[in-house]
Design brief:
The chain is of the alpha/beta class. Helix content is about 25%, strand content about 30%. A nine-stranded mixed β-sheet has the order 5-4-6-7-8-9-10-15-14, with helices on both faces. The relative contact order is 0.09.
Length: about 325
């Protein structure tokens, strides 16, 4: 998510870039609206009232701001004043906070906890966002913390709008006061305003399917499908396939832009962190071949200690491009 700036009028302003030119785009959200969003969302999680919140995400990003800080008010919750990043830090702090804790985190941090082999204390619940959470990982996390794991769906412009218990549900449940409208093959979120003012309509940049009452499913994102030599595959499915391999700590596929001076198609690159005692690059290639056309087997695989994730554990295209240049230069 983009960084958060606070202007003198008390407006939270998110600075992002859009389009190939990287032109800055501002998304403004008032404190009143943030609090209203948090109050509505908290109604769905009122069984967590009185909990203590531990987060692995910073408060200067929308996810952390909405659920680490604003959530504490309607939930009458305490908030730990420090973030926890490493599994050992998460274990230490949750052990200190006790069983009334809830963990606000990301799939990256949850996968690290599962891979760590540590025994975590029982807590009240886990909330995950910023990237898709696989059903298999969600089940492992529920067993690890002996608590339900909820995934939330939303954006910087809308805040959280829906949730699901990822280990068991494929469809999403909209929070109160929200509905999805389809107009001219585009989807919009309608949010009811508590003060009686007109509903806010915000375009959703995802494909929404099977809309029934307050539930829906997500179709493939337009930027999720990649094309290599005339064949298509889902980046999300590729990532899930690799990350399901025991011993894989983190992974990211990257498809470089087509070079103008050559007619040869570009091949996928894979950056991966893994335990060499459990995994080899040959095993990774064989796993991909089981589920995808051989054209999607990475031409180059780079083993790394860690990937250049940002404060909310996301990987940007620019960071992957820079990483590829660095890896090739070091060979």
């Amino acid at each position: 998510m983009p960084p958060l700036l606070i202007n003198p009028d008390g407006i939270a302003v998110h600075l992002s870039t859009s389009g190939s030119s990287g032109t800055p785009t501002l998304h403004a959200m008032s404190w009143r609206r943030l609090l209203t969003l948090a109050q509505t969302t908290a109604q769905h999680f009122k069984h967590w009232q009185g909990s203590t919140i531990l987060a692995t995400v910073p408060s200067q990003h929308m996810y952390g701001l909405e659920h680490r800080l604003f959530w504490a008010l309607p939930l009458q919750a305490n908030v730990h004043d420090q973030m926890a990043q490493l599994p050992s830090d998460i274990l230490k702090r949750l052990s200190q906070l006790g069983t009334d804790s809830i963990l606000i985190t990301t799939p990256f941090h949850l996968n690290a906890c599962v891979q760590s082999g540590l025994n975590f204390p029982n807590i009240r619940g886990v909330l995950s966002a910023t990237a898709p959470l696989s059903q298999n990982l969600a089940k492992h996390v529920e067993a690890l913390f002996k608590a339900p794991v909820y995934e939330i769906y939303g954006s910087t412009e809308t805040g959280a709008i829906a949730t699901r218990q990822a280990a068991y549900e494929q469809d999403w449940q909209l929070f109160s006061g929200r509905s999805i409208i389809k107009k001219a093959q585009r989807f919009y979120l309608s949010q009811t305003q508590s003060d009686g003012s007109p509903n806010i309509l915000t375009e959703l940049h995802d494909t929404i399917e099977n809309i029934t009452d307050n539930r829906f499913t997500l179709g493939p994102r337009s930027n999720d499908l990649i094309k290599v030599a005339g064949k298509r595959a889902s980046l999300a499915e590729l990532h899930h396939t690799v990350k399901e391999i025991s011993g894989i700590k983190d992974a990211a596929f990257y498809l470089p832009e087509q070079e103008s001076h050559t007619k040869l198609y570009q091949r996928l690159i894979l950056f991966v962190c893994f335990d060499e005692k459990l995994v080899t690059t040959t095993m990774i290639k064989q796993k991909i071949k089981q589920y995808f056309d051989p054209i999607f087997v990475p031409k180059e695989i780079y083993k790394l200690e860690e990937l250049p994730r940002n404060e909310v554990s996301k990987l940007t295209l620019s960071s992957l491009k820079e990483l590829l240049e660095r890896c090739r230069h070091e060979i």
